[in-house]
């Protein structure tokens, strides 16, 4: 039933997206071939925005599912809109030629090296040149194409920030080489290893790779392993892509109650630093500044109060003045900061400023007035 619902969901989205998907014959100098390539652009694409780029191998199989997932999460979960490019490889079993590896060395064959250059030196530069792409790039592959994407880990700096590897058919020694490279790379990497329920001779190497990846302990490496025993070779992508997407773009979501309890309240660092780091990471990875969510402001405010971290109220108030300039939020929080600091005159003046501005969320003029009256009563102003 789950598989059927997922199929209907994907089909519905794909029908709605037809006007936003284009297909062309790409003349490749590297391959000396003409290749079928599909593109998805958000319907409200704007030169004023930047868009992460998602490269999808096995385009006939995975492209529509990736596009449906991208649109769903951007429409309903506040995640960034993306540009998706799909490389068709089904005709004449091209995928096996494109992604072939030497059985002894585990490295790409000559055709594989050319295909590697076609993607990294033609397809992606073409999109970067002609569209407003963000620095963040993701690659999605299945089976042999999932193995092939690992070869970008062997560069000094990975071209991709996120990897979705579905039921990979690993080349010799890849279960050791990929973890070693991921441990050596000094950049933010999200790596998703997804397997279905069918067990075959490749399972041992995939599970060995999983064990090696789990022991990597780096702040900039984010590893996720998902096994779906009920999924077969066809449905495993449907099961896994949505969850992988959700995790990769988790930082775009408003701070959740779970995140608040497990990350903010347990941290030894100033509460405001969590918010600062979250949005700095978004800007660093995606190349654009995301407006700060009111929900996140309130989570940091609540955390500051809960942990008696009143020093975080000052930078939080300054941020609120920039993000919500016509509202009382920034001055109200600044007033509370001066209260905690033991400076009632500054607190009074600041609450008076807050009283003259627009209400927002739970903050009302009555609350500012109560603060003003209490300060006057306590200190005889």
Q: Care to describe what's here?
A:
It is a single chain. With about 375 residues, the protein is an alpha/beta fold. It has 2 domains: about 1-250, 3-Layer(aba) Sandwich (Rossmann fold); about 255-380, Serine Threonine Protein Phosphatase 5, Tetratricopeptide repeat. It has 15 helices and 8 strands. It has helices at about 1-15, 60-75, 95-100, 110-130, 145-150, 175-185, 205-215, 235-250, 255-265, 270-285, 295-305, 315-325, 330-340, 345-355, 365-380; strands spanning about 20-30, 35-40, 50-55, 85, 135-140, 160-165, 190-195, 220-225. It has an 8-stranded mixed beta sheet with strand order 1-2-4-3-5-6-7-8, sandwiched between helices. α6 packs parallel to α7, α10 (about 270-285) runs antiparallel to α11 (about 295-305) and α13 (about 330-340) packs antiparallel against α14 (about 345-355). About 35% of the residues are buried.
Contiguous runs where pLDDT drops below 50 for at least 5 residues: 1-19
Determine the structural class based on helices, strands and strand pairing.
alpha/beta
Rounded radius of gyration (Å) = 25 Å
Shape, per Cα inertia axes: elongated
Count of DSSP H/I helices: 15
How many discrete domains? 2
CATH architecture of the largest domain: 3-Layer(aba) Sandwich
What's the pLDDT, averaged over the residues?
A: 91
Largest sheet: 8 strands, mixed
CATH superfamily of the largest domain: Alpha/Beta hydrolase fold, catalytic domain
Percentage of residues in DSSP E strands: 5-15%
CATH C-level class of the largest domain is Alpha Beta
């Amino acid at each position: 039933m789950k598989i059927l619902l997922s199929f209907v969901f994907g089909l519905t989205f794909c029908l709605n997206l037809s006007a936003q998907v284009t297909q062309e014959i790409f003349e490749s100098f590297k391959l000396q071939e003409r290749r079928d390539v599909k593109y998805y652009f958000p319907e409200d694409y704007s030169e004023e925005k930047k868009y992460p780029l998602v490269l999808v191998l096995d385009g006939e199989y995975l492209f529509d599912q990736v596009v449906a997932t991208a649109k769903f999460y951007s429409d309903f979960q506040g995640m960034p809109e993306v540009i998706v490019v799909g490389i068709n490889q089904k005709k004449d079993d091209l995928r096996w030629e494109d992604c072939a590896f030497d059985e002894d060395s585990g490295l790409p064959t000559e055709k594989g090296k050319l295909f590697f250059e076609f993607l990294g030196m033609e397809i992606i530069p073409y999109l970067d040149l002609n569209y407003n792409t963000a620095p963040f790039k993701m690659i999605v592959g299945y089976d042999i194409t999932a193995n092939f994407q690992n070869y970008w880990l062997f560069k000094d700096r990975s071209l991709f920030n996120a990897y979705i590897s579905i039921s990979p058919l690993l080349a010799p020694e890849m279960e050791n080489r990929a973890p070693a490279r991921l441990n050596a790379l000094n950049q933010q990497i999200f790596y998703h290893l997804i397997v279905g329920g069918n067990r075959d001779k490749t399972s041992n190497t995939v599970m060995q790779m999983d064990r090696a990846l789990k022991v990597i302990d780096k702040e900039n490496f984010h590893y996720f392993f998902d096994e779906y025993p009920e999924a077969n070779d066809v449905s495993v992508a449907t099961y896994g892509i949505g969850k992988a997407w959700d995790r990769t773009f988790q930082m775009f979501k408003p701070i959740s109650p779970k995140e608040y309890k497990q990350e903010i309240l347990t941290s030894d660092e100033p509460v405001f630093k969590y918010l600062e780091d979250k949005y700095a990471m978004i800007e660093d990875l995606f190349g654009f500044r995301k407006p700060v969510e009111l929900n996140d402001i309130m989570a940091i405010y609540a955390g500051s109060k809960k942990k008696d971290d009143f020093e975080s109220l000052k930078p939080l108030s300054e941020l609120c003045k920039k993000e919500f300039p016509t509202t009382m939020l920034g001055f109200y929080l600044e007033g509370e900061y001066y209260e905690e600091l033991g400076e009632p005159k500054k607190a009074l003046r600041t609450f008076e400023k807050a009283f003259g501005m627009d209400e927002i969320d739970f903050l009302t003029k009555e609350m500012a007035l109560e603060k003003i009256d209490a300060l006057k009563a306590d200190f005889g102003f």
